[in-house]
Design a protein that fits this description.
471 residues; alpha/beta; OB fold (Dihydrolipoamide Acetyltransferase, E2P); nine-stranded mixed beta sheet; seven-stranded mixed beta sheet
């Protein structure tokens, strides 16, 4: 289906609008194949697996309200609120709840926080859904820790939507764009909801990391673990483990699992979830994944299986070097950014770890994002090859792997009929936080004026950067 979204150009949440879902999948597959080919990796890139739900797949939404009590999403790269009625990516019940809250805020005379004046009560509303159990959490992010009429407010909201099992007031008095604060007060229920994923139950709090697209997450995890050759006596490390979903799913197939996660709240959730599911052969460590791997390597610990699901920035040189020292027989690498994954695969290849296949999953239809998973194993000694890599340069310029300046120029000319220079592309890249190796902003002479990119061309270049998944 094709969307008909009135705020598509302003919102920036979606990359595709007029393309059919089939065409989106073809486009995403081709981009990853080009990326792999460009980096001379001999990997069979399988066609992307589409999401079971093209729309309504998001189980989490965060909105802000303006002074007219209109709720909306932030305009891309700004804090301007774009009001909307319904979003095709949200599970429909979430927007229905927001409409009810909108009416109730007026009824209960709840003031809306004004960023400029730094006054007002309500800053954001966050809604989370446990799809399998049909449980809903509502989080009111407020500028104060007391809400007048909160009991009646909660009773009316729960009566209208019985699936709401908890309502939490999160207090955020900080003058920052960060949505959630540290202090919380449970107004109704237990302060969490429970969902089921891959046969296990998980408590989800306001701050828990939990995959946005439940059903596609199940497909991704099942594929990732199916790649492993497991006998039952293995020791597995689940790095960047979040609340432990992958490691706990694997736990009944191996001897021991060690989960490693830097976020303290996530580790707390992981321990509670393991206890709730009565899993005794897994334990979690609150540590930086790279530091933990380096310590394991120094101690020459035994590791059979390594699972890694790093953030968009990918892993680190030190992590991969430590992996080489630990010598796990199997490495499963799940990635939410194929470009940094390809960068890491090049370094893994230096140490003899290679993959034959890459599997793609469309976790976020209508956006440019793609999730990928590969199984890495060591080549036999007689199959090893010598490659020469400048690792520092490789890690410093990973964004450049996605598209050259000429490719960006060609895209802008084809799609918008505009000619842009390397200088303009460099300026827009910097605005978007992309490291630029060559400094096109330097003037030819000391007093020379540097031309600035027009708004029209800037938007066209941003569209190209999105197309090549650079932002």
């Amino acid at each position: 289906m094709k969307t008909n979204c009135s705020i598509f150009k302003r919102c920036g949440g979606c990359f595709y609008s007029n393309e059919s879902y089939h065409q989106q999948l073809l486009d995403k597959t081709n981009k990853i194949k080009q990326l792999v080919k460009k980096n001379n990796l001999k990997i069979n890139v399988h066609d992307i697996q589409g999401s079971p739900h093209e729309t309504g797949y998001r189980n989490k939404v965060i909105v802000a309200f303006n002074q007219q009590y209109q709720y909306g999403l932030y305009e891309e790269s700004s804090h301007r609120i774009v009001p909307y009625d319904t979003c095709l990516l949200h599970e429909p019940i979430m927007d229905e709840i927001l409409k009810k809250i909108q009416r109730m805020l007026k009824k209960y005379r709840v003031s809306i926080y004004d960023e400029k004046r730094q006054r007002g009560f309500l800053r954001h509303v966050l809604i989370r859904r446990a799809v399998q159990t049909d449980q809903t959490m509502v989080v009111l992010v407020c500028n104060e820790n007391m809400m007048k009429g909160s009991k009646n407010f909660c009773q009316e909201l729960v009566k209208a939507f019985p699936s709401i099992k908890t309502i939490v007031m999160n207090v955020n008095k900080r003058k920052t764009p960060i949505v959630l604060g540290q202090e919380e007060k449970v107004l109704y229920g237990k302060g969490f909801i429970v969902d089921e994923l891959c046969g296990l139950q998980y408590k989800i709090s306001s701050k828990s990391f939990y995959q946005i697209n439940h059903d596609q997450c199940v497909a991704l995890y099942q594929k990732a673990l199916s790649l492993l050759n497991v006998k039952g006596n293995e020791v597995a490390i689940d790095t960047y483990c979040g609340i432990g979903t992958i490691g706990m799913t694997l736990s009944n197939q191996v001897k021991q699992v060690i989960g490693v996660e830097l976020n303290k709240d996530a580790v707390k959730d992981a321990k509670n979830n393991a206890r709730m599911n009565k899993i005794e052969n897994i334990h979690f460590i609150n540590a930086d994944a790279t530091s933990f791997m380096k310590d394991m390597a120094k101690e020459k610990q035994k590791v059979d299986i390594l699972i890694m699901d790093p953030p968009r920035s990918g892993s680190t040189k030190e992590f991969i070097q430590a992996t080489n020292q630990l010598q796990p027989k199997q490495v499963v690498y799940i990635s939410c950014d194929p470009t940094t994954q390809v960068r890491d695969l090049l370094m893994f290849k230096k140490y003899g770890y290679v993959t034959q296949d890459m599997y793609l999953y469309d976790m976020f239809p209508y956006t440019s994002h793609v999730e990928t998973v590969v199984l890495l194993s060591q080549q036999k000694p007689d199959d090893t090859i010598e490659i020469d890599l400048d690792l520092d340069e490789l890690y410093a310029t990973s964004a450049e792997l996605k598209a050259t300046y000429q490719e960006i120029k060609d895209y802008v000319l084809k799609e918008f009929g505009l000619k842009v220079s390397n200088l303009y592309i460099s300026q827009v890249k910097r605005k978007c936080g992309i490291e630029v190796v060559e400094n096109y902003n330097l003037p030819k002479s000391e007093n020379a004026r540097v031309p600035q990119c027009s708004k029209e061309k800037e938007e066209a270049i941003k569209a190209a950067l999105k197309y090549f998944t650079m932002i």
